[in-house]
Design goal:
mainly beta; seven-stranded mixed β-sheet; four-stranded antiparallel β-sheet; 55% strand
Length: 122
């Protein structure tokens, strides 16, 4: 069982910064693609950022490019989402996701954390 626990959410002023953490356990962290999703009330879940298992490639949603940075600390089995220049539109529940696919095997696992609330408001 791969367990993911998000933390770091809370109330942030517009233009402020916040860093989310996702601690992983139960499997080899370095073998997983690690992803951040978010979902605002009444809206569809959207992919915010993704990192490859090798950590060599990171992709971001257009809405957060230049403002958010995803990174990994392999030694701590933790993925981070550094958020800057936050806007009210960034208000959502943020979810950590671990996914692993292999050629000739398919989807090996697809795990989700419980989510952490980020509210951007004055």
């Amino acid at each position: 069982q791969l367990q993911l626990v998000e933390s770091g959410g809370g109330l942030v002023q517009p233009g402020g910064s916040r860093t989310l953490s996702c601690a992983a356990s139960g499997f080899t962290f370095s073998s997983s693609s690690m992803n951040w999703y978010r979902q605002a009330p009444g809206k569809e879940r959207e992919l915010v950022a993704s990192t490859s298992s090798s950590g060599s490639r990171t992709n971001y949603a257009d809405s957060v490019k230049g403002r958010f940075t995803a990174s990994r600390d392999v030694a701590k089995s933790t993925v981070y989402l550094q958020m800057t220049s936050l806007k009210p539109e960034d208000t959502a529940v943020y979810y950590c996701n671990a996914r692993r696919r292999r050629l000739g095997v398919g989807l090996e696992y697809d795990y989700w954390g419980q989510g952490t609330q980020v509210t951007v408001s004055s």
